Amino acid sequence: MEGLVERPRRLRRTAALRAMVRETRLDAAQLVQPYFVVPGEGVRREIGSMPGQFQLSIDELVEEARRAESAGVRSVILFGLPESKNPLGTGAHEHDGIVQKALSALRRETPGLVRIADTCLCEYTDHGHCGPLLDDEVDNDATLGILARTAIAQAEAGADIVAPSGMMDGMVGAIRGALDGAGFTGVPIMSYAVKYASGFYGPFREAADSAPAFGDRRGYQMDPANVREGLREAELDVREGADILMVKPALPYLDVLRAVRERFDLPVAAYHVSGEYAMIKAAASNGWIDEQRVVDESLTSIARAGASIILTYFATEVAARL
Ligand code: PBG
Question: Which positions are annotated as active-site residues?
Answer without folding.
Answer: 195, 248
